[in-house]
Design brief:
The chain is an alpha/beta fold and 392 residues long. Helices cover 23% and strands 19% of the residues. The chain is built from six helices and 15 strands. The longest helix has 34 residues. The protein is globular, with a radius of gyration of 24 Å.
């Protein structure tokens, strides 16, 4: 019988093979279209003169780490689909940050990367040299991998009246710094979350973890969480079958997943918060309990616009749908929406991050239509095959 490790290894090999097939087919289709349309095909395959001149090339990896990740953060997809190395072996289906970091450190030590890692080092300059090598702050390397991630500085919008608000204000990337009252005050403890994506869902999970996953501790008069959304996001249940279908379903067949979710997951009662955008238009959020908490009134969900903050409340205008009053009802147009004032002891900005800047990379690397994030295979500047970006 195959053990979990063997099954995971087999799955990793299969997924890698499918990716290889996909890239191969895309390459041949590009060649065919180039021939038919008489448009030159950019041959990306490195020439012999572009290859490193040494048998043991030196490669600089810029970045790495778990910036902006809370201890409560966990994988959005099944661990089976997140095996970044064959020896990785997670103990849970949705490992949290510390378990992922543990596996990273294990690989780090296995390959003796400890002595090759420089912490707290700011890279100021990456330049191509005439001999196809790279200068990284004056040090010579045969190749460079930029792995600065997708999360740069926190985005914290300056809402009107935010300076008057007396409660706590915190970005979702700093949930570890949030202390909840234990027990909750008699009047309840009210948290308003700005945003509706994965970070907003994580706030709910964070609070639940703090109360030992006792869902009865959420709701009016207890710990009250209100999600304020500008747009609805697709929420799908956690499960290996659904995850596999969602990750491999072609965009053209996304309507099948949409139909399934509308009927069997959101249902008639949550029709008003069902996204109108195609399923393939953005990355879905995976959570099995989130919608049921909204359905049962333990978490409030409002789609509208944040107008202003007072000392202890948030005013939301153009409310199109409110789970407290609009269950089993469709949403309304923004111009027909009402205004709602929500009491708040604190607000959480689940408003994401800015894209990391790549100013340290020499401008001569970019040219024509290929500028970040428009890179060949979303990773390479075509003229420099020994420079790779992993921050799409």
């Amino acid at each position: 019988m195959f053990g979990l490790f063997s099954i995971s290894s087999l799955a990793t090999t299969l997924i890698s093979f499918l990716v290889f097939i996909n890239v191969t087919i895309a390459t041949w289709l590009s060649l065919l279209l180039s021939y038919v349309t008489n448009i030159p095909y950019l041959n990306f395959l490195p020439r012999d003169e572009d290859m490193p001149k040494t048998a043991r090339p030196r490669v600089a990896v810029i970045g790495g780490g778990d910036h902006g990740v809370n201890t409560s953060s966990c994988l959005q997809f099944q661990a089976l689909f997140y095996r970044f190395h064959p020896i990785v072996k997670f103990g849970t289906a949705f490992p949290k940050r510390d378990e992922i970091v543990h596996e990273l450190k294990r690989i780090w030590r296995t390959y003796d990367l400890v002595r090759r890692t420089r912490f707290n080092t700011l890279v100021k300059s990456v330049k191509p040299l005439p001999d196809n090598t790279w200068s990284v702050d004056g040090e010579i390397f045969d190749g460079v991998i930029v792995a600065v991630g997708t999360c740069g500085e926190e985005m914290t919008p300056e809402f009107k009246g935010i300076e008057n608000f007396k409660g706590f204000k915190i970005h979702s990337s700093k949930l570890d710094d949030l202390d909840l009252p234990d027990p909750a005050p008699e009047k309840g403890f009210k948290i308003v979350v700005f945003g509706s994506g994965a970070s907003a869902v994580e706030v709910v999970d964070y609070v639940l973890e703090k109360v030992d996953w006792a869902e009865r501790e959420l709701g009016p008069g207890k710990i009250e969480i209100t999600i304020v959304a500008r747009h609805d996001k697709w929420i799908i249940p956690r499960g290996i079958i659904v995850d596999a279908i969602a990750s491999m379903l072609p965009p053209a067949l996304g309507f099948l997943m949409e139909r399934f979710l509308r009927v069997f997951w959101y249902g008639r009662d949550l029709k008003g918060m069902t996204p109108t955008k195609p399923f393939a238009a953005s990355t879905p959020c995976l959570n099995t309990r989130y919608l049921s908490l909204i359905r049962n009134g333990q978490v409030r969900y409002i789609r509208g616009s944040i107008d202003t903050l007072s000392t202890d409340s948030v005013r939301i205008t153009n409310v199109e749908w409110d789970s407290r009053t609009d269950l089993n009802k469709p949403g309304v147009a923004a111009e027909q929406g009402k205004t709602v004032d929500v009491k708040a002891d604190g607000v959480v900005f689940a408003t994401g991050f800015r894209k990391p800047e790549l100013k340290f990379v020499s401008k001569e690397v970019w040219g024509g239509e290929f500028e970040p994030p428009n890179l060949h295979m979303v990773a390479f500047p075509p003229r420099y095959p020994t420079l790779m970006f992993l921050n799409d």
